[in-house]
Amino acid sequence: MLIRYKKNFEKIAMGLLSFMPTEKDLKKLQQSMRQYETDENWQLFLWKEEDIIGIIGVISNDHNNIEIQHVCVNPSHRHQGIGKKMVLALKEVMPDKTIVPTEHTAAFLEKCHRIEEGE
């Protein structure tokens, strides 16, 4: 289930975001978290099953597009389709938006698209 980020999820969110190659540096990670907390165009969502096991962060660049900035799944829950579930749930939450990747999330989104097409 996709849930919106709240400040009381900060530690788990930072832990999940730290798996992104672009967020290995603590200062960069803290800067990204601040951006999600203060910029209304940056939105962070957590994926909860029994526990919170994934995170997806987007930026609303304009009225029609949302850019997936971050997508991370706890390593012990990878290769189970959690990332794809997060993207599909995001499409349900924002049905009027087109999801676009960054250079860091493009390969992941392409893989999700291939799975949807049954490749």
From TrEMBL:
Keyword Repeat: no
Database matches in CDD domains: NAT_SF
EC number(s) per entry: 2.3.-.-
Keyword annotations: Acyltransferase, Transferase
Gene Ontology molecular-function annotations: acyltransferase activity
Stored InterPro entries: Acyl_CoA_acyltransferase (IPR016181), GNAT_dom (IPR000182)
Domain N-acetyltransferase: 3-119
Protein name, UniProt field: GNAT family N-acetyltransferase
